[in-house]
Amino acid sequence: MSTIPTLEEQIAMAGITYGRRHDISYRAGLVLQVLGAAVLAVLYPIESPFYTVGIMIFELGVLISAIYLLVWISWIKKIILGSVFAGIALQVAGMYVPEQYAGRIMIAGIGLVCVGAAGMVGKEAYCFGYREGWLLMQVGFPVMVLANLLAKENHIFNAIGFSAVFLLLLSLVGKKLKQKLLSPCSQNVCGLPSQKTKS
Question: Residue 185: helix, strand or coil by DSSP?
Fold first, then answer.
């Protein structure tokens, strides 16, 4: 019989308020990320001006998931949330700067949001062994952001890259949705949270 506490018991041990509705909200954010990536993967190759809708849906999903992310180490969540908020703020600022700088600023903002997204898929990869998470964190998001930030836009490269990111996200989120709500890490790789002491 396993002596590892259930996730609900671990959450109580850590003194964190996190229930099924929080997990559902986190997963809803992941679904929005997939939908946004799908819109981007379909509309960008055909040069539709509405491909930016996909970016907005994706970023909304990242924001929701970041807010409802469950991790034992609080500074990890702070970095992820901070990157997402900073990225969104930078994109808003990009709307008010001279046109010659706006593009780079907007891409940098999207890049910061992707840092947050990479942190979350990396967490899923670490906790549950999802290879798609490692690929997105180490290759997919960094390559797409840096290629567009440091080089001139390449339509074919981006079309292929956006499709690859979508397929990896689709596979990862599909696995996540098959999990029971509040599933603990595989083999308890995340360890146990520090017990909150009452003053």
Answer: coil
Where do the domains of the chain lie?
18-177
Distance (Å, rounded) from C-alpha 166 to C-alpha 57? 13
* C-alpha to C-alpha distance for 187 and 167, rounded to whole angstroms: 27
SS (H, E, C) 39-107: HHHHHCCCCCCCHHHHHHHHHHHHHHHHHCCCCCCHHHHHHHHHHHHHHHHHHHHHCCCCHHHHHHHHH
Whether the CA torsion 133, 137, 142, 145 is positive or negative: it is positive
Tens digit of each residue's pLDDT, the chain (199 residues): 456 667 776 777 666 777 789 899 999 999 999 999 999 999 999 999 999 999 999 999 999 999 999 887 888 899 999 999 999 999 999 989 888 888 889 999 999 999 999 999 999 998 888 899 999 999 999 999 999 888 788 899 999 999 999 999 999 999 999 988 888 777 555 655 565 543 3
Residues in the chain: 199
Give how far the C-alpha of residue 46 lies from the chain's centroid of Cα atoms, to the nearest Å: 26
Asked if residue 80 lies in contact with residue 66, where contact means CB atoms within 8 angstroms, the answer is yes
